[in-house]
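User: structure tokens for this one?
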Amino acid sequence: EILASSSTALSYSIASASVNPSSLLLKFVQNPSTSHYFPWCHPSSGPHSILPMQGDQLPSLVRELDPYHCPVPKIFYVQLTVGNNEFFGEGKTRQAARHNAAMKALQALQNEPIPEKSAQNCESGKEMDDDKDANKSEISLVFEIALKRNMPVSFEVIKESGPPHMKSFVTRVSVGEFSAEGEGNSKKLSKKRAATTVLQELKKLPPLPVVEKPKLFFKKRPKTIVKAGPEYGQGMNPISRLAQIQQAKKEKEPDYVLLSERGMPRRREFVMQVKVGNEVATGTGPNKKIAKKNAAEAMLLQLGYKASTSLQDQLDKNFLGTPAGWRLRKELQIKSS
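Assistant:
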């Protein structure tokens, strides 16, 4: 019918010389309800130049009447895998498709029962704890167990023997009512062996009761860091006390460095430095052990803790008569006041 009407219009324009073909075709376009035209013809072309055109290239008047180029909405498809189950979602956007797939997965998983904890899961949990403990030193594990059970810890070198090139040290560790000794060719090795021995006894203790916390249905307030009181660990060895305080704060252990060694051969004076975070303190003494204790005590006073009473009881009387001893006594009096 369209071809017939088009041929009629063309033949009519050829037969009547007084009719303009362009005005006739424009009349057909403006009155589509009463006329028919070929949708792929250029409306401004004459009868001898009928050119096929794409839908987006047609003029606006013709493009509105083009029945062959309707816009088709784009649909996205998403596949979601949860365990052995697969869920498919669709939507007009990628985000809508993901939400649709997630909604289907939630509806399916809500009907499944919650799996119970099996013995294999418990064994695997113990193996994971053992793997975590394997990455920690024996000394750190001793401090960690003592902190959980609220037990004081102290290390002390009780014996030193042998020639200068073959020294032998014996260190005693006390954890609450447990104690053990370790021997080695260095203080560090003897301390480690003592910690290994007492750690075997601590692992035999019964496990602590697990207290399940009730679920909170309100917004949880942010935790505030509670600092230990100034009297915390008073009476302990300053070195062990400082290490235990850092363990309680879950911060890095103190770092000790020997700065200098000065004085006459029989009246030596050692200067030891300890660093805790951004804080630095120094201590002096006739040997490295006392200098380290004094540095730890100075750091405790600098952090706001009270002086360790055991330090003043264990100071050597001969050391108190030296210039370094007088300086230490004066520093303790000034800081304690």
